[in-house]
């Protein structure tokens, strides 16, 4: 681990700041990777110089507070666009927010497969999880109890920050696909069949948007290596087409599969929070760690609640929502039932809260 600092001129423009960031990168060199695995990423635990200059137009003294890899240049993959007339572009779907109690109430959960479709979705997810563990370079002692893979959180050895970041990036890069596929196919179905959709499309598209915000947030902290980029590219190609086919054949099983995927996401983030709490991830617990601006703005993270742990708490609550939504949608009639999560209930009843129902709601509970 190495501590580095870069100071920028007060008057830097976004473009100059980006150039400066690139120019400084070799000087802000770091030590060797703690991972040593082929799936490379370059870590930087605070936003790049350009982002701070754009936001504050002043030296912030925190270009890349510390880094752990042999970084030669760190790019801002998603710089905010600023034109002559546009100051900023706000998110199309503002985050609905969580209370602290809601975030703390999230726990890993698992819905037991009941039908052959559930069983198929669950088994296929086990294969995907094995693949992700393999790509993350997880060793035996870093894994949890195999009998309860989505609820057990105790392992003999913790993962490193680099391993976690690879896991987060890969997970988020594929997690944004199902909502878009399902929303797109339901949209086309509605147009083609001249039928109402009853509120599913917006929830599904918003889910994929939310997943992309997770990815953008992590991309402000690290840069994937070439191998990782190729893996993401290949995975998306296979995954997107597979999901289109799967959703056309059985949307019910596909929603169940996504419910299981989200169980994995909640489990992953719960493990990360636990390992931060146990003091195994010092770089993320450091007082020098700064959450990217994009995350602060999207989740409206309050002052004093902007640690990596806080950020993961927000993301985990999002994943818990996706888990509850997809398991519930899988329980509904795919053609006729309305989306309960955006419905106005009779008698002042409040809509269901998916984050708090890990196994999802049964049809009779919500309709
Ligand atoms: Fe996510
Ligand atoms: Fe998710």
TrEMBL record:
Membrane topology: Multi-pass membrane protein
UniProt binding sites for Fe cation 2: 211, 262, 319, 322
Record's subcellular location: Mitochondrion inner membrane
GO biological process: alternative respiration
Keyword tags: Electron transport, Iron, Membrane, Metal-binding, Mitochondrion, Mitochondrion inner membrane, Oxidoreductase, Respiratory chain, Transit peptide, Transmembrane, Transmembrane helix, Transport
Cofactor-binding details, from the entry: Binds 2 iron ions per subunit.
Gene3D superfamilies named among the record's database cross-references: Alternative oxidase
Predominant localisation class: mitochondrion
Enzyme Commission number: 1.-.-.-
Region span, Disordered: 332-367
Residues holding Fe cation 1: 172, 211, 214, 319
Family of the protein in this entry: Belongs to the alternative oxidase family.
Stated role: Catalyzes cyanide-resistant oxygen consumption. May increase respiration when the cytochrome respiratory pathway is restricted, or in response to low temperatures.
Protein name: Alternative oxidase
Native organism: Xylaria hypoxylon
């Amino acid at each position: 681990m190495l501590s580095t600092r870069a100071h920028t001129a007060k008057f830097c423009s976004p473009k100059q700041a980006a150039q400066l960031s690139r120019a400084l990168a070799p000087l802000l060199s770091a030590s060797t990777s703690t991972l040593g695995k082929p799936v490379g990423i370059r870590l930087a635990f605070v936003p790049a110089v350009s982002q701070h200059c754009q936001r504050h137009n002043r030296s912030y003294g925190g270009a890349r507070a510390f880094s752990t890899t042999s970084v030669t240049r760190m790019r801002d993959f998603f710089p905010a666009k600023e034109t002559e007339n546009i100051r900023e572009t706000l998110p199309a779907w503002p985050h609905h927010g969580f209370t602290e109690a809601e975030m703390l109430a999230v726990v890993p959960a698992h819905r037991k497969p009941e039908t052959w479709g559930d069983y198929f979705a669950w088994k296929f997810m086990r294969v995907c999880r094995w693949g992700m563990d393999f790509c993350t370079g997880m060793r035996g002692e870093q894994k949890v109890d195999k009998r309860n893979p989505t609820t057990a959180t105790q392992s003999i050895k913790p993962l490193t920050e680099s391993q976690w970041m690879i896991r987060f990036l890969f997970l988020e890069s594929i997690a944004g696909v199902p909502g878009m596929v399902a929303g797109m196919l339901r949209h086309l179905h509605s147009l083609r069949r001249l039928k109402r959709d009853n509120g599913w499309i917006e929830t599904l598209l918003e889910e994929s948007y939310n997943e992309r915000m997770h990815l953008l947030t992590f991309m402000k902290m690290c840069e994937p290596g070439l191998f990782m980029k190729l893996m993401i590219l290949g995975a998306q190609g296979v995954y997107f087409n597979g999901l289109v086919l799967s959703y056309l054949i059985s949307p019910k099983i596909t929603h169940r599969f996504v419910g299981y995927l989200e169980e994995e996401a909640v489990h992953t983030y719960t493990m990360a929070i636990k390992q931060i709490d146990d003091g195994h991830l010092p770089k993320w617990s450091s007082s020098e760690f700064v959450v990217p601006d994009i995350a602060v703005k999207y989740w409206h993270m309050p002052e004093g609640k902007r640690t990596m742990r806080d950020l993961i708490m927000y993301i985990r609550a999002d994943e818990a929502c996706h888990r509850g939504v997809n398991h519930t949608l899988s329980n509904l009639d795919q053609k006729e039932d309305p989306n309960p999560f955006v419905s106005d209930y009779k008698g002042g009843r409040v809509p269901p809260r998916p984050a708090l129902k890990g196994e999802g709601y049964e049809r009779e509970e919500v309709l």
